[in-house]
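QUALITY CONTROL LOG
STEP: pairwise intake check
CHECKER ROLE: data steward
CRITERIA: each record must contain a sequence immediately followed by its structure tokens, with no blank fields

ENTRY 1 OF 2
RESULT FIELD BELOW
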Amino acid sequence: MKYEIEIDGENFEIDLTERDGKFIYQFPDGERGEISLKELNKGEFFLKRGSKNYHFYSAKKGNGGEIVISHGNCTYEIKVSDYRSKILKKISGVEENVNKVLAPMPGKIVSVNISEGEEVEKNSVLLVMEAMKMENLIKSPRSGKIKKVYVKGGDSVEAKAILVEFFEE
């Protein structure tokens, strides 16, 4: 899977695949290799990349997925996001201050948990959609009042179809 990694404000891309407990990586410049990672204690890790060994400590920072890694006398702030999540957020309209929620992919509406005129909180489940044999919770990108619900249970939808519209704030 392709990941975007931000380390102290600098962005990198990496393809990372797990095989037999080891990670195979490839950078955009073509460099490939294998990484093995072992957790020694909670938050303490040993990483081996080729002939190099690294001992480091890791801790989560905040609720945004950022982590802090300490290695020797150095500390790094790291944020990792995968391309699939970024694409789904972009095409589903899951952004702050968005007024329409779009289907992230083709699928079938299993249930609708809201109605027009209802006030909802950010991250509350608006509806459940089945796609690729999985149920996906479509959550509210913001708090607000529902203006229109475009779907009902049993409806089939295409990618980017409007599911729900909010009143503008």
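ENTRY 2 OF 2
RESULT FIELD BELOW
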Amino acid sequence: MSFPNTKLIAFDLDGTLLKEESIYELLKLQKNGIKKLELAKKINCYFKENVIDSATEMNMLSSMLSGMEAEKYRQRIDSFELAQGADYVSKILKKEGYTLAILSDGFLTVAESVRRKLNFDYVFANELEVENGILTGKLIAPHNEKMPYSGCINHNLCKRKVLTDLCGKLKIELKDVVAVGNGTSDICFLDIVGKSIGFNPNSIIEEKADVSVKSNDLKDILPYIIN
């Protein structure tokens, strides 16, 4: 099944365009990085078990980056490995004339790095506060607004709101959008687009998405986008 009228393709970042989970990789650079990584995974489990919401999870994880040198942070981000096939996918989709966007509840510096590498058109993400060249651990969420949408979880960045606004700006109907994601925070935008693709999705997304692609290569989503 292909999606013939697509104009905009919106991608999640971590686990979709990026092979790595960026927050975990950054925590490894911290003093007592292994212990912080273990704690971060416990926090993620609390989110999966509905003990905390998505916004609380990201605020907690961000606070664990407090004290990191901003330059060290940027250098590590530039070395993040893209998902296999991501570069090929972006080149093919741009050649076909699609508009490409990254929507991430993670960090803008990470998302911007990927946008530049893959020549995407738009990027939306949160920011980490920096003072005197050091990360404070405070998450700045410029897209955090009270959402009128029922069924959305509590995000620092609601992908449904951001995507709806972008489509309004570009005069694109949501039915002409394909969304690609893998995790629970992607439900918000997978639910409203014309077609949705779960790339190595968790069980919730696998149930929600129109198509689930389980693969080590992002190229395997292309048959579901291009006729």
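INTAKE CHECK: passed for both entries
DESCRIPTIVE NOTE, ENTRY 2: Strands lie at 8-11, 99-107, 122-131, 134-140, 177-181, 195-199, 211-213.
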